[in-house]
Design brief:
about 475 residues; mainly alpha; two-stranded antiparallel ribbon; two-stranded antiparallel sheet
């Protein structure tokens, strides 16, 4: 038997070493009290083959080595939450083990250099593309003169935003919408701010001529706004020399302006007179053209300006030279002009002229006042002529849509509300109003609903015989 074991060990030297290691570890586990004889072998017979106990120990050592390799692999992945081995060599899952793999240190955020106090990076303001906390001001960086890229010429450079000057093509496309919007809102400060942001360059003197040329085709109220714009721009954005150059160009371009606006010479003359009275043109501007004008239209414009300045007592300021249109006029002034319009119509009977004058007032939102004044004039006149002429005028204004149905309705309703006060001065006001409203409905000026709203005065029946002195209503 001994010779057989020695022959087997000589044939398998590696397994013999593992077997010897297992015996040594077993002795160490038992505190050195175990069997010290390494040559004792217990034979077992399995399936007719003689096997020693060393083969069982080799098999168990292999299983333990495989379990340890598996434990190391799981511990590196789960950071110590892998499987473990029990005392018997069994695999136990879910037990916490200290990480045995060096890979677990990659997930550790603590300092491995033994420096610092564990505070966050950059005071909590760290991160990709972040320089520091919000609002943190850095000190100016001093230029290193020993730097090979240092250039003395660039040390005191000042960088500014440069806006290229406008050329002739871009000038009209940019400034024309600004002037047209000004005709709507009438704020000269906004126009001055927009022009100041642009680099007008040599086109600066073209601003007044462009504004005036646009105003020639506009309304009288918009021409008044243009005159105010020129006054506010002079000194802030434009200079007096720019104004003179611009009006010189207008006089040269009059033959072309007359093709679109036949009354351009007279209007340009009024602009020149207003500019002289507003002191944006010198008083010697007209004298500089005496005997030097060959164009017929330019001569007419200068003559018109000279006449207006003489009428204003030697060039004093002309207020509201073009007249104030729209809602810019005071309400009292509008009421006076409407009364004068009605009186002129009663005397002349020209309804076309009355329509033109009402349209020139440019107050479509205030036409209800015109209807109110016309009906009150009928009540106060007590004449058949005024009654018929006012009906005819309201009929023509309604058909031409100069006065809308809403404005017509508001005018009649205002008369209905004030009829009690009117009746104090005109005793027959209720009777005349009923006839006028009924006639207006028949002519299609008002609707049935508005006719039915007409107030009627309660009539008293006097005491008659047999009524026992009782007043009946």
């Amino acid at each position: 038997m001994a010779t057989d074991c020695e022959a087997w060990l000589n044939a398998n030297p590696v397994e013999a070493e593992v077997l010897s290691d297992s015996f040594i570890s077993a002795e160490e586990d038992n505190g050195g009290t175990g069997v010290s004889n390494k040559n004792i072998i217990i034979n077992n017979e399995i399936n007719g083959n003689w096997l020693s106990s060393s083969s069982n120990n080799i098999h168990e050592a292999r299983l333990k080595a495989k379990a340890k390799r598996r434990l190391r692999k799981n511990s590196s992945r789960d950071s110590g939450r892998g499987d473990s081995l029990s005392d018997n060599g069994d695999v136990v899952r879910g037990t916490s083990m200290a990480p045995t793999s060096p890979k677990s240190k990659l997930l550790d955020r603590k300092s491995r250099m033994g420096k610092g106090r564990g505070l966050p990076k950059k005071g909590g303001a760290g991160g990709k593309g972040v320089w520091g906390r919000s609002g943190e001001v850095y000190e100016p960086v001093e230029v290193d003169k020993k730097d090979p890229n240092f250039d003395e010429d660039q040390e005191n450079c000042v960088y500014e935003t440069v806006v290229p000057p406008l050329d002739e093509r871009d000038f009209e496309k940019t400034v024309t919408p600004i002037v047209q919007e000004y005709f709507e809102h009438g704020d000269t400060n906004e126009v001055a701010e927009l022009l100041a942001e642009m680099n007008l360059g040599p086109m600066r003197s073209e601003v007044p001529s462009l504004a005036v040329s646009l105003a020639l085709e506009a309304k009288a109220s918009q021409r008044e706004l243009t005159s105010r714009l020129l006054v506010d721009l002079c000194g802030n954005v434009l200079s007096p020399s720019d104004m003179e150059v611009s009006f010189d160009k207008l006089l040269r371009d009059l033959p072309d302006l007359v093709l679109d606006t036949p009354g351009a010479p007279q209007m340009v003359g009024q602009f020149i007179a207003r500019a002289v009275s507003d002191q944006i043109l010198s008083k010697s501007y007209l004298e500089s053209y005496k005997g030097k004008v060959d164009c017929e239209h330019a001569r007419a414009a200068l003559d018109r300006a000279a006449v207006l300045l003489k009428m204003s007592m030697g060039g004093l300021r002309i207020d509201n030279h073009w007249g104030t249109g729209g809602g810019q006029r005071p309400v009292i002034q509008l009421i006076k002009e409407m009364n004068l319009l009605l009186k002129e119509y009663i005397l002349s009977g020209d309804s076309k002229e009355a329509e033109r004058c009402l349209r020139d007032l440019e107050v479509p939102h205030f036409h209800h006042e015109f209807v109110y004044e016309a009906v009150v004039m009928v009540l106060e006149s007590r004449g058949e002529k005024t009654f018929k002429m006012v009906l005819q005028l309201l009929k023509s204004l309604s058909l031409s849509s100069i006065i809308t149905m809403d404005q017509m309705r508001r005018g009649y309703e205002r008369v209905y509300m004030d009829i009690e006060e009117i009746n104090i001065d005109v005793p027959l006001a209720y009777f005349i109003l009923e006839q006028f409203v009924d006639k207006s409905f028949r002519m299609g000026i008002i609707s049935v609903k508005l006719r039915d709203q007409c107030p009627r005065r309660n009539r008293k029946r006097l005491v008659s015989e047999g009524d026992c002195g009782v007043v009946k209503f």
